[in-house]
Amino acid sequence: MFFWERRVEEGRQEVRTLVGDSETVPVQAPPQKMLGSQGTAAEMCSQYCISIADVKKACSEIKDLIHVTPILTSSILDQLAGRKLFFKCELFQKTGSFKIRGAFNAIRSLTSNTSGDRKKPKAVVTHSSGNHGQALSYAARLEGIPAYIVVPRTAPSCKKSAIRGYGATLVDCEPSDESRKMVAARIVKQTEGIMVHPNQCPAVMAGQGTIALEVLEQVPKVDALVVPVGGGGMISGIAVTIKALRPEVKVYAAEPCNADDCFQSKLKGELTPNPSPPDTIADGVKSSIGPYSWPIIRDLVDEVFTVTEDEIKVKKPQKFGGGGVHEGKNAQLGRGPQGTLGPSQGPRCPVHKAWTLQGGDAPTELSC
């Protein structure tokens, strides 16, 4: 995620379920309201599956388990973009991505009250292209809970190896959302485990929102954030946090043109999943947004920008002037009708902007 700099009330009940599977847990979409039209931003944000209270609770639950990742800058990229950029380096997070935040919060919510009749789950199950699988495997291992990770057979071998390295059982599936769901449901039934959805689980989404709390502390005058979007768990947590605490700050989504379900959903005003498995080098954002993340994205994300495959490949070596820091397969420079962000292009916004960097586990061939 990246952001630029310029120069927020709590509500709702605690999350009580970890299952965010769209096929088993229906979601009633909140009424659409514009920020500032009725009530406060925090009141609006309290309508969704998570609130700022959930994000703050997640922060207190996981702060002793995660890194406060650094923010880096680049004068070269500032010059190219015509604005001051700040890069939130989640590639330096434990397990190599932001996903550990949500995984830790999900596991903590399962194990924080294990006295009396409540017991640890027999297993936790998820489907993942790799990052969430690694994170959940690591978090579950620390609590002594078996983890079963359903992974597309086409996932990079480095991700599969990492999941096995954390002690989880790997289960292959076909590279489609339907196959992921079907295989995961079968494993949940076989193991009597609990499904922890990678991006539609409220506890996971709240954990990802802690990124925004750190950004607001590290760059208090932030103007806007640009967040890569796949299933929408991270941007949902970030958007709820930002719009509750600093509603004037813009939140932009970025995704590949070849996996533009978020863009299409915003354009059509209704949830519009990718019609087929996307063909994109950005393997970490192939998932479609879901019914838990969509209402938040619909109402709180200001705009969605897309990038072509060639632009993703070209931009990768340019990060930090061709130095050793890169964001791998999950971050994109925003691209709208005007083209890739430049001095006179991109979203109409002030001059200080933040970006989340991921890809600590990116395949080695992507960084050549």
UniProtKB/TrEMBL annotation:
<dbReference type="Pfam" id="PF00291">
    <property type="entry name" value="PALP"/>
</dbReference>
<feature type="domain" description="Tryptophan synthase beta chain-like PALP">
    <location>
        <begin position="63"/>
        <end position="312"/>
    </location>
</feature>
<feature type="region of interest" description="Disordered">
    <location>
        <begin position="318"/>
        <end position="350"/>
    </location>
</feature>
<dbReference type="InterPro" id="IPR036052">
    <property type="entry name" value="TrpB-like_PALP_sf"/>
</dbReference>
<dbReference type="InterPro" id="IPR001926">
    <property type="entry name" value="TrpB-like_PALP"/>
</dbReference>
<dbReference type="GO" id="GO:0005524">
    <property type="term" value="F:ATP binding"/>
</dbReference>
<keyword id="KW-0456">Lyase</keyword>
<protein>
    <recommendedName>
        <fullName>L-serine ammonia-lyase</fullName>
        <ecNumber>4.3.1.17</ecNumber>
    </recommendedName>
</protein>
<dbReference type="GO" id="GO:0000287">
    <property type="term" value="F:magnesium ion binding"/>
</dbReference>
<dbReference type="InterPro" id="IPR000634">
    <property type="entry name" value="Ser/Thr_deHydtase_PyrdxlP-BS"/>
</dbReference>
<keyword id="KW-0663">Pyridoxal phosphate</keyword>
<dbReference type="GO" id="GO:0030378">
    <property type="term" value="F:serine racemase activity"/>
</dbReference>
<dbReference type="GO" id="GO:0018114">
    <property type="term" value="F:threonine racemase activity"/>
</dbReference>
<dbReference type="GO" id="GO:0070179">
    <property type="term" value="P:D-serine biosynthetic process"/>
</dbReference>
<dbReference type="GO" id="GO:0030170">
    <property type="term" value="F:pyridoxal phosphate binding"/>
</dbReference>
<dbReference type="GO" id="GO:0003941">
    <property type="term" value="F:L-serine ammonia-lyase activity"/>
</dbReference>
<keyword id="KW-0460">Magnesium</keyword>
<comment type="similarity">
    <text>Belongs to the serine/threonine dehydratase family.</text>
</comment>
